[in-house]
Amino acid sequence: MYDFDWSSIPGALPILATGALITLKITATAIVVGILWGTLLAVARMSGRPWLAWPAAAYVNLFRSVPLVMVILWFYLIVPQLLRRGLDIPASYDIRMASGLVAFALFESAYYSEIIRAGIQSVSRGQVSAALALGMTGGQAMRLVVLPQAFRNMVPLLLTQAIILFQDTSLVYVIGLADFFGAAYKVGDRDGRLVELLLFAGFLYFLACFGASVLVRRLQRRVAA
Amino acid sequence: MNYHWNWGVFLSRTPSGESTYLGWLLQGLWWTVALSLAAWALALLLGTIFGVLRTVPGRWLPGLGAAYVELFRNVPLLVQLFSWYFVMPELLPRAWGDAIKQLDPMLQQFLAAWVCLGTFTAARVAEQVRAGIGSLPRGQRAASLALGLTLPQAYRHVLLPMSFRIIVPPLTSEFLNVFKNSAVASTIGLIELSRQSQQLVDYTAQPYEAFIAVTVLYLLVNVVVMAGMRWVESRARVPGYIGSK
Question: pTM of the predicted model, to two decimals?
Fold first, then answer.
């Protein structure tokens, strides 16, 4: 039987905390950008103007058909080289964090956009008609009447997506960025205690995500009531 | 911009000489498809079992089903994969662990990724199966039991066939997710499609062609799976439901 030795964890806590901070930073950025950019994409897609709707649909479908790992690699290996030619970024500049942030923000926008689109569709058509009859422009009706109601209905789904996103940030491992998971792996590898560190990381992820999903479910019941 | 596009690079021989770079790409695609299909089969099996458990009467069995779903949904896929690959062989009885470690490395990676993707996706399938069974009118279960079917018979002949036909659309998106999630297997060294993109960059120094080709192959897989599932959906539609015309 395996002999567990948890002694390398207490000393590793500061490294793990630094990693957790990176995890939270990426998660928070992707949520904020994802919801903003996702809303624009959803509205563009439903605008009825082909030159807006078509590129938005293409964007969303493209990002939703490609694995997140590939997207992260695109924004680490390919896009920066393109920009480097154009923007004259010094080759020594560490782009991993920027790559991770951009990849997650753009990728999650596609998923958020679908949630928001469904939310907008859940608002009854009469609301738009009434707003237009009151003399609002289409943009005003969207901003002041439709979106506030849509977001109210969507909150549980947006939060559930945030939990998924929080878990997915561990994939920045593929570009060697030490988020919480990456830090745990590094320490485990260094001390030859991979088993303990992986179980510890998994346990903490479970606590955080399970706790959050219980809260979301409670909120969902209240919104539905 | 002075990049030299060279799509012909895919036809040139790899250093070992036994294949072309296109051959590598197709090999990666093969592993991605094989892994995903195998994982999907496992996910359907386990997902049905745990989804059914959540709907049977009593306390313990539904609790077991719920525990499974919560455990596999609240730990990141990458952590699960590393646990199957690095942790599991250590925790098994020593003889088993040693037997696993003596397997061909590629087979070890494939097994870990298969079990990981299968059990991970099963939690999502279980949720859909539960929702499908829950969406059936209560009378179907009662009528089956009143006709003298045992509970397992009622599930096998009435409840499951009906709910599977209803949940084809959400299962389609889970099926697509398996292919996308299979890219995570590259982290333990399985040279599937996404890993080939990096390998091609290293070998050919033609990063744009390599990445575009791999991305297009993923899109292609997506289109094929969606077309296939649309066909299944049209065949499985239950007459009289809103989704059926």
Answer: 0.92
